[in-house]
Amino acid sequence: MIKNRVTPDRVIRTALPAEVEGIVALHARARATYYPDGLPQDGTDWLAAWQSALARPDGRVLCVVEAGRIVGLASFRTPEGAPADTVKLFQFHVDPDHWRRGVGTALHAACVEEWQADGRRTALLDVHVDNRRAQGFYRRQGWVPEPAEPGDHHLTMRFRLAAE
């Protein structure tokens, strides 16, 4: 249950399968900001990936809605082989037109609230090494980077959840 996340202009809630095309579009806009040469064409079917994330019984996709439009989203679940008290933040995006307006901070707080309510103690995420903006955001929220291997394209970060 997400508490205290509804304002007259902003609602944070579970994303709906019918919203998948808007989610894919927001994801592409956000990712494009840290790929100076354009989004890599790696063959990922992002529509199918987001449909799968929305349908997973073991995960959640939260979204921030302002003026009837999704402006932020977060997808998380327990990663395979991890302890039950661990959660992984697989996707976290804010529409670039809404940066620096508190959307990401509110969405992060909603995620932490969910994780604590579910008894999670540790959260993990991978962030692209070139995405300095995101790394700075996560550090300000309390995430700590783990040592990276040379040549890694992603940095793993860890967040310790306080008991509720």
Outline the structure in words.
There is one protein chain. This protein is an alpha+beta fold. It contains 4 helices and 7 strands. It has helices at about 20-30, 45-55, 105-115, 130-140, and strands spanning about 10-15, 60-65, 70-75, 85-95, 120-130, 145, 155-160. Strands 1-2-3-4-5-7-6 form a 7-stranded mixed beta sheet, sandwiched between helices. Helix 1 crosses helix 2. The protein is globular. The chain starts with 9 loop residues before the first strand and ends with a strand. This is Acetyltransferase. It holds the Pfam family Acetyltransf_1. InterPro entries: Acyl_CoA_acyltransferase, Bact_Acetyltransf, GNAT_dom.
What key phrases describe this protein's structure?
Acyl_CoA_acyltransferase, alpha+beta, Aminopeptidase, transferase, GNAT_dom, 164 residues, 4 helices
Do you know the CATH architecture?
3-Layer(aba) Sandwich
How many beta-strand runs? 7
Summed over residues and divided by their number, the pLDDT gives a mean of 89
Name of the CATH first level: Alpha Beta
State the shape.
globular
Proportion of beta-strand residues: 25-35%
Domain N-acetyltransferase: 10-162
Keywords: Acyltransferase, Transferase
Protein name: Acetyltransferase
Organism: Streptomyces azureus
